[in-house]
Design brief:
Distance between the termini: 79 Å
Order of helices and strands: HHHHHHHHHHH
Strand content: under 5%
Oligomer: single chain
Radius of gyration: 22 Å
Largest sheet: none
Amino acid sequence: MAQTAQRPAASPVRARRAADSGPASSSFFFNGHAPRRRALVGVVAALFGFALTVVWSAQFVDRTIGDNIADTLLGHAAKGTPIAGALAGLAFALATGVAGTFTACNVAVFSALAPLAGAPAVSRRGRMAAALRPLSRLALGAVVVSAVYGAVVSLAGRGMPQFDDSQGGGGFSGRLVQAMVVYGLIGLLMTYLGLAALGVVRDPLARLSRRFPGAPMLVMGALIGAFLIGRPFPLFRQLFRDAAESHNPLYGAVAFGLQSIGNITVMSVLFLLVAGLFGERLHRWTARRPSRASALMAAGFLAAGVFLVLYWDVRILAVRELIWYPMAPWAA
Protein backbone atom coordinates (compact mmCIF):
# COMPACT_ATOMS: atom_id res chain seq x y z
CA MET A 1 0.00 0.00 0.00
CA ALA A 2 1.54 3.27 -1.12
CA GLN A 3 2.21 5.81 1.55
CA THR A 4 1.37 9.44 1.00
CA ALA A 5 4.39 11.71 1.30
CA GLN A 6 4.00 14.27 4.01
CA ARG A 7 4.93 17.89 3.36
CA PRO A 8 7.32 19.26 5.98
CA ALA A 9 5.78 21.70 8.38
CA ALA A 10 6.41 25.34 7.57
CA SER A 11 8.87 27.13 9.80
CA PRO A 12 7.61 30.01 11.96
CA VAL A 13 9.56 32.46 9.80
CA ARG A 14 7.91 31.15 6.62
CA ALA A 15 4.50 31.22 8.23
CA ARG A 16 5.02 34.81 9.32
CA ARG A 17 6.17 35.84 5.84
CA ALA A 18 3.15 34.15 4.32
CA ALA A 19 0.87 35.94 6.72
CA ASP A 20 2.51 39.26 5.90
CA SER A 21 2.32 38.78 2.17
CA GLY A 22 -0.47 40.34 0.16
CA PRO A 23 -1.39 40.40 -3.52
CA ALA A 24 1.44 39.81 -5.93
CA SER A 25 0.98 43.17 -7.59
CA SER A 26 2.51 46.19 -5.91
CA SER A 27 2.52 49.93 -6.44
CA PHE A 28 3.82 53.07 -4.78
CA PHE A 29 1.29 53.20 -1.94
CA PHE A 30 0.88 49.42 -1.59
CA ASN A 31 3.98 47.25 -1.78
CA GLY A 32 2.05 43.98 -2.05
CA HIS A 33 2.52 43.05 1.63
CA ALA A 34 -0.46 43.84 3.82
CA PRO A 35 0.12 43.89 7.59
CA ARG A 36 -1.24 40.91 9.49
CA ARG A 37 -3.23 43.17 11.80
CA ARG A 38 -4.30 45.79 9.32
CA ALA A 39 -7.58 46.41 11.16
CA LEU A 40 -5.59 47.24 14.28
CA VAL A 41 -3.26 49.54 12.33
CA GLY A 42 -6.23 51.36 10.82
CA VAL A 43 -8.10 51.75 14.12
CA VAL A 44 -5.05 52.98 16.05
CA ALA A 45 -4.14 55.50 13.35
CA ALA A 46 -7.73 56.78 13.14
CA LEU A 47 -7.92 57.09 16.94
CA PHE A 48 -4.68 59.06 16.94
CA GLY A 49 -6.08 61.48 14.34
CA PHE A 50 -9.28 61.82 16.37
CA ALA A 51 -7.39 62.38 19.65
CA LEU A 52 -5.35 65.11 17.99
CA THR A 53 -8.55 67.01 17.12
CA VAL A 54 -9.69 66.76 20.74
CA VAL A 55 -6.54 68.32 22.23
CA TRP A 56 -5.61 70.68 19.38
CA SER A 57 -5.46 74.34 20.36
CA ALA A 58 -5.48 76.61 17.32
CA GLN A 59 -4.77 79.65 19.47
CA PHE A 60 -1.62 78.11 20.94
CA VAL A 61 -0.31 76.78 17.62
CA ASP A 62 -1.17 79.83 15.52
CA ARG A 63 -0.26 82.57 17.98
CA THR A 64 2.19 81.21 20.54
CA ILE A 65 4.18 79.08 18.11
CA GLY A 66 3.46 80.56 14.68
CA ASP A 67 3.64 84.25 15.55
CA ASN A 68 6.79 83.87 17.66
CA ILE A 69 8.63 81.93 14.94
CA ALA A 70 7.65 84.48 12.30
CA ASP A 71 8.66 87.42 14.53
CA THR A 72 12.04 85.79 15.20
CA LEU A 73 12.78 85.03 11.56
CA LEU A 74 11.72 88.49 10.34
CA GLY A 75 13.19 90.45 13.24
CA HIS A 76 9.96 92.38 13.85
CA ALA A 77 6.31 91.79 14.66
CA ALA A 78 4.92 90.01 11.60
CA LYS A 79 1.24 90.32 12.33
CA GLY A 80 -0.23 93.68 11.44
CA THR A 81 3.00 95.13 10.06
CA PRO A 82 2.49 96.32 6.45
CA ILE A 83 4.51 94.42 3.87
CA ALA A 84 6.77 97.07 2.35
CA GLY A 85 7.58 96.01 -1.19
CA ALA A 86 8.07 92.80 -3.16
CA LEU A 87 11.32 91.70 -1.48
CA ALA A 88 9.81 92.16 1.95
CA GLY A 89 6.79 90.19 0.76
CA LEU A 90 8.95 87.28 -0.41
CA ALA A 91 10.83 87.21 2.91
CA PHE A 92 7.47 87.35 4.70
CA ALA A 93 6.18 84.44 2.59
CA LEU A 94 9.10 82.15 3.42
CA ALA A 95 9.21 83.08 7.11
CA THR A 96 5.48 82.64 7.65
CA GLY A 97 5.60 79.37 5.70
CA VAL A 98 8.07 78.00 8.24
CA ALA A 99 6.04 79.54 11.07
CA GLY A 100 2.92 77.76 9.85
CA THR A 101 4.53 74.32 9.90
CA PHE A 102 2.54 73.05 12.86
CA THR A 103 -0.78 74.76 12.17
CA ALA A 104 -3.90 72.65 11.67
CA CYS A 105 -3.90 73.56 7.98
CA ASN A 106 -0.37 72.24 7.45
CA VAL A 107 0.48 69.61 10.07
CA ALA A 108 -0.74 66.84 7.75
CA VAL A 109 2.33 67.56 5.61
CA PHE A 110 4.25 65.19 7.90
CA SER A 111 2.29 62.28 6.42
CA ALA A 112 4.55 62.73 3.38
CA LEU A 113 7.33 61.15 5.46
CA ALA A 114 5.48 57.82 5.38
CA PRO A 115 6.01 57.02 1.66
CA LEU A 116 9.74 57.69 2.12
CA ALA A 117 10.18 55.07 4.85
CA GLY A 118 12.00 51.92 3.91
CA ALA A 119 13.81 53.29 0.85
CA PRO A 120 16.58 51.02 -0.48
CA ALA A 121 19.85 51.30 1.40
CA VAL A 122 22.70 53.04 -0.38
CA SER A 123 26.29 53.92 0.40
CA ARG A 124 27.00 56.68 2.88
CA ARG A 125 28.04 58.99 0.05
CA GLY A 126 24.84 58.50 -1.90
CA ARG A 127 22.44 58.39 1.03
CA MET A 128 21.73 62.12 1.14
CA ALA A 129 21.48 62.32 -2.66
CA ALA A 130 18.99 59.45 -2.64
CA ALA A 131 16.97 61.28 0.02
CA LEU A 132 16.98 64.53 -1.95
CA ARG A 133 15.44 62.99 -5.08
CA PRO A 134 11.97 62.26 -3.64
CA LEU A 135 12.07 65.51 -1.68
CA SER A 136 12.76 67.47 -4.87
CA ARG A 137 9.72 65.89 -6.54
CA LEU A 138 7.60 66.65 -3.48
CA ALA A 139 8.76 70.28 -3.49
CA LEU A 140 8.15 70.60 -7.24
CA GLY A 141 4.57 69.41 -6.95
CA ALA A 142 3.90 71.76 -4.03
CA VAL A 143 5.47 74.79 -5.71
CA VAL A 144 3.66 74.30 -9.02
CA VAL A 145 0.21 74.14 -7.43
CA SER A 146 0.82 76.97 -4.96
CA ALA A 147 2.45 79.20 -7.61
CA VAL A 148 -0.49 78.77 -9.97
CA TYR A 149 -2.86 79.59 -7.14
CA GLY A 150 -0.80 82.65 -6.21
CA ALA A 151 -0.97 83.92 -9.79
CA VAL A 152 -4.75 83.42 -9.82
CA VAL A 153 -5.08 85.30 -6.52
CA SER A 154 -3.11 88.26 -7.89
CA LEU A 155 -5.24 88.39 -11.03
CA ALA A 156 -8.58 87.98 -9.22
CA GLY A 157 -7.80 90.55 -6.54
CA ARG A 158 -10.51 91.13 -3.98
CA GLY A 159 -12.91 88.81 -5.78
CA MET A 160 -11.58 85.81 -3.84
CA PRO A 161 -13.61 84.22 -0.98
CA GLN A 162 -10.83 85.09 1.51
CA PHE A 163 -12.06 88.69 1.44
CA ASP A 164 -15.56 87.60 2.43
CA ASP A 165 -15.83 88.26 6.17
CA SER A 166 -19.62 88.32 6.22
CA GLN A 167 -21.20 85.76 8.52
CA GLY A 168 -23.80 83.73 6.67
CA GLY A 169 -26.20 81.19 8.10
CA GLY A 170 -24.75 79.59 11.23
CA GLY A 171 -21.81 82.00 11.27
CA PHE A 172 -20.05 80.55 8.21
CA SER A 173 -18.14 83.03 6.08
CA GLY A 174 -17.16 82.30 2.50
CA ARG A 175 -13.56 81.92 3.65
CA LEU A 176 -14.48 79.32 6.26
CA VAL A 177 -16.68 77.34 3.87
CA GLN A 178 -13.86 77.19 1.35
CA ALA A 179 -11.45 75.91 4.02
CA MET A 180 -13.94 73.24 5.11
CA VAL A 181 -14.42 72.01 1.55
CA VAL A 182 -10.71 72.02 0.60
CA TYR A 183 -9.38 70.36 3.74
CA GLY A 184 -12.29 67.94 3.90
CA LEU A 185 -11.58 66.71 0.37
CA ILE A 186 -7.83 66.44 1.01
CA GLY A 187 -8.56 64.55 4.23
CA LEU A 188 -10.82 62.08 2.42
CA LEU A 189 -8.16 61.52 -0.24
CA MET A 190 -5.48 60.91 2.39
CA THR A 191 -7.78 58.49 4.19
CA TYR A 192 -8.29 56.60 0.92
CA LEU A 193 -4.53 56.45 0.34
CA GLY A 194 -4.12 55.05 3.85
CA LEU A 195 -6.63 52.30 3.09
CA ALA A 196 -4.82 51.64 -0.19
CA ALA A 197 -1.54 51.23 1.73
CA LEU A 198 -3.27 48.57 3.82
CA GLY A 199 -4.45 46.79 0.69
CA VAL A 200 -8.11 47.36 1.57
CA VAL A 201 -8.88 49.41 -1.54
CA ARG A 202 -7.17 49.77 -4.88
CA ASP A 203 -4.25 52.15 -5.18
CA PRO A 204 -5.52 54.99 -7.44
CA LEU A 205 -1.99 55.71 -8.63
CA ALA A 206 -0.95 52.09 -9.27
CA ARG A 207 -0.60 52.36 -13.05
CA LEU A 208 1.00 55.78 -12.84
CA SER A 209 3.58 54.68 -10.27
CA ARG A 210 4.54 51.61 -12.30
CA ARG A 211 5.06 53.68 -15.44
CA PHE A 212 6.52 56.79 -13.79
CA PRO A 213 7.97 55.84 -10.36
CA GLY A 214 8.53 59.46 -9.35
CA ALA A 215 5.02 60.68 -10.20
CA PRO A 216 3.31 59.80 -6.88
CA MET A 217 5.67 62.11 -4.97
CA LEU A 218 4.68 64.89 -7.37
CA VAL A 219 1.05 64.15 -6.53
CA MET A 220 1.84 64.26 -2.81
CA GLY A 221 3.52 67.62 -3.35
CA ALA A 222 0.47 68.87 -5.24
CA LEU A 223 -1.71 68.00 -2.23
CA ILE A 224 0.64 69.98 0.02
CA GLY A 225 0.49 72.93 -2.39
CA ALA A 226 -3.30 72.74 -2.25
CA PHE A 227 -3.13 73.40 1.52
CA LEU A 228 -2.80 77.09 0.60
CA ILE A 229 -6.23 77.11 -1.06
CA GLY A 230 -8.49 78.61 1.55
CA ARG A 231 -5.83 78.51 4.27
CA PRO A 232 -7.16 80.44 7.29
CA PHE A 233 -3.80 80.93 9.07
CA PRO A 234 -3.83 84.68 9.96
CA LEU A 235 -0.28 85.33 8.75
CA PHE A 236 -1.04 83.64 5.45
CA ARG A 237 -4.17 85.76 5.05
CA GLN A 238 -1.93 88.81 5.44
CA LEU A 239 0.27 87.55 2.59
CA PHE A 240 -2.81 86.60 0.60
CA ARG A 241 -4.21 90.10 0.73
CA ASP A 242 -0.88 91.63 -0.16
CA ALA A 243 -0.62 89.39 -3.25
CA ALA A 244 -4.22 90.06 -4.24
CA GLU A 245 -3.82 93.82 -3.95
CA SER A 246 -0.55 93.80 -5.92
CA HIS A 247 -2.28 92.56 -9.11
CA ASN A 248 1.13 91.14 -10.07
CA PRO A 249 0.80 87.44 -10.98
CA LEU A 250 4.57 86.90 -10.96
CA TYR A 251 4.85 88.24 -7.43
CA GLY A 252 1.86 86.16 -6.32
CA ALA A 253 3.29 82.99 -7.87
CA VAL A 254 6.74 83.40 -6.31
CA ALA A 255 5.36 84.42 -2.91
CA PHE A 256 2.98 81.47 -2.71
CA GLY A 257 5.68 79.12 -3.96
CA LEU A 258 8.00 80.29 -1.18
CA GLN A 259 5.18 79.83 1.32
CA SER A 260 4.94 76.16 0.28
CA ILE A 261 8.72 75.76 0.51
CA GLY A 262 8.54 77.12 4.05
CA ASN A 263 5.70 74.72 4.86
CA ILE A 264 7.83 71.66 4.05
CA THR A 265 11.19 72.92 5.34
CA VAL A 266 10.96 71.37 8.82
CA MET A 267 9.62 68.10 7.43
CA SER A 268 12.43 67.99 4.85
CA VAL A 269 15.14 68.62 7.44
CA LEU A 270 13.65 65.93 9.67
CA PHE A 271 13.61 63.43 6.81
CA LEU A 272 17.20 64.19 5.82
CA LEU A 273 18.33 63.68 9.41
CA VAL A 274 16.49 60.37 9.62
CA ALA A 275 17.89 59.26 6.26
CA GLY A 276 21.43 60.23 7.19
CA LEU A 277 21.44 58.80 10.70
CA PHE A 278 19.01 55.88 10.56
CA GLY A 279 18.32 55.29 6.86
CA GLU A 280 20.22 52.02 6.51
CA ARG A 281 18.87 50.67 9.80
CA LEU A 282 15.32 51.63 8.85
CA HIS A 283 15.71 49.90 5.49
CA ARG A 284 16.92 46.68 7.13
CA TRP A 285 14.00 46.83 9.57
CA THR A 286 11.41 47.13 6.80
CA ALA A 287 13.23 44.66 4.50
CA ARG A 288 12.98 41.91 7.11
CA ARG A 289 9.20 42.30 7.04
CA PRO A 290 7.91 44.40 4.09
CA SER A 291 4.49 44.73 5.72
CA ARG A 292 6.07 47.15 8.20
CA ALA A 293 6.51 49.71 5.43
CA SER A 294 2.84 49.28 4.52
CA ALA A 295 1.82 49.77 8.14
CA LEU A 296 3.90 52.95 8.50
CA MET A 297 2.51 54.45 5.32
CA ALA A 298 -1.07 53.52 6.16
CA ALA A 299 -0.80 54.90 9.69
CA GLY A 300 0.61 58.21 8.47
CA PHE A 301 -2.06 58.78 5.85
CA LEU A 302 -4.98 57.57 7.96
CA ALA A 303 -4.02 59.70 10.96
CA ALA A 304 -3.60 62.81 8.78
CA GLY A 305 -6.78 62.14 6.80
CA VAL A 306 -8.97 61.54 9.84
CA PHE A 307 -7.54 64.62 11.54
CA LEU A 308 -8.30 66.87 8.54
CA VAL A 309 -11.86 65.62 8.11
CA LEU A 310 -12.79 65.73 11.80
CA TYR A 311 -11.04 69.02 12.58
CA TRP A 312 -12.14 71.01 9.54
CA ASP A 313 -15.62 69.59 8.99
CA VAL A 314 -16.88 68.12 12.26
CA ARG A 315 -15.19 70.12 15.00
CA ILE A 316 -16.00 73.41 13.28
CA LEU A 317 -19.68 72.51 13.48
CA ALA A 318 -19.22 72.02 17.22
CA VAL A 319 -17.44 75.38 17.55
CA ARG A 320 -20.51 76.93 15.90
CA GLU A 321 -22.64 75.07 18.50
CA LEU A 322 -24.47 73.05 15.85
CA ILE A 323 -23.36 69.67 17.20
CA TRP A 324 -21.44 68.32 20.19
CA TYR A 325 -17.82 67.26 19.84
CA PRO A 326 -15.35 66.40 22.61
CA MET A 327 -12.69 69.07 23.09
CA ALA A 328 -10.11 69.60 25.79
CA PRO A 329 -10.72 72.73 27.93
CA TRP A 330 -7.70 74.51 26.46
CA ALA A 331 -8.83 73.64 22.92
CA ALA A 332 -12.35 74.97 23.30
